[in-house]
Design the sequence.
């Protein structure tokens, strides 16, 4: 596999820095994650190429890349892409699907990259797991001056009543798992060496069978994947009861779950 000269070799004593819900859930559920997660809206391409200035000759990092759901969006910009992911089962999915991507083991607190070596670091569905000053110092280290940190989340639109009910079923099991919806990830900003946090909202939908876009999507949530089988069975019972009680869902083989993609950009100052 192609390697970039940004790689370093001092990884002899890595610290995992991975929350137990992510490690346990995603180790068990890589296949479920691939099947259940929505894609990203087409307008995100313009954001990546315009506001993050990605294109041929640039190097972009997909940090906390998971199975690579977001990675093709970076490849499509024409940039060279490095995907960094701590869970081996997830890395295997990226490597199999995207052989042109340089897939590396690592965490946000210990990036396998040289100083000032990349043009952008993107965290899609991941920054809430490592929203710490330590991670931001490390991200700033690897970014070139003027480079960008991009944060992206696909979030179900809970302004729709049945989506709000679905979220309540999921949120009741979150425990101590970091989540986007709590807003706690914002506490690390403003951050030294970075400019202001700029925000974009992009509404879209996830269309497919009820089984895929609702049941499997819930099952792909890290802390749900980590539940014992009997507790997952209770979650599934509640989700299916909601589907049966909601005319917009029960009467249709194919449904669209409303989402909003939240995209944030910060510039690394000189």
Sequence:
């Amino acid at each position: 596999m192609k390697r970039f000269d940004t790689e370093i070799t001092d990884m002899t004593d890595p610290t995992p820095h991975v929350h137990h819900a992510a490690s346990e859930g995603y180790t068990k559920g890589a296949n479920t994650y691939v099947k259940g997660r929505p894609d990203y809206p087409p307008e995100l391409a313009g954001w990546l190429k315009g506001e993050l200035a990605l294109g041929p000759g640039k190097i972009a990092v997909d940090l906390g890349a998971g199975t690579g759901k977001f990675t093709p969006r970076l490849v499509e910009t024409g940039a060279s892409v490095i995907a960094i992911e701590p869970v081996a089962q997830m890395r295997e999915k990226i490597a199999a699907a995207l052989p042109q991507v340089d897939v590396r083991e690592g965490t946000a607190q210990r990036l396998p990259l040289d100083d000032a070596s990349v043009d952008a670091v993107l965290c899609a569905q991941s920054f809430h797991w490592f929203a710490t000053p330590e991670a931001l110092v490390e991200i700033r280290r690897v970014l070139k001056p003027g480079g960008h940190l991009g944060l992206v989340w696909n979030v179900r639109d809970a302004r729709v009543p049945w989506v709000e009910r679905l979220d309540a079923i999921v949120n009741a099991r979150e425990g101590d798992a970091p989540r986007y919806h709590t807003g706690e990830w914002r506490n690390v900003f403003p951050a030294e060496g970075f400019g202001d946090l700029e925000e974009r909202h992009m509404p879209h939908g996830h269309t497919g069978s009820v089984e895929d876009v609702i049941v499997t999507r819930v099952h792909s949530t890290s802390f749900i994947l980590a539940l014992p089988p009997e507790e997952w069975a209770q979650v599934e019972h509640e989700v299916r009861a909601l589907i049966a009680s909601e005319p917009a869902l029960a009467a249709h083989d194919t449904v669209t779950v409303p989402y909003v993609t939240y995209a944030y950009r910060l510039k690394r100052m000189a």
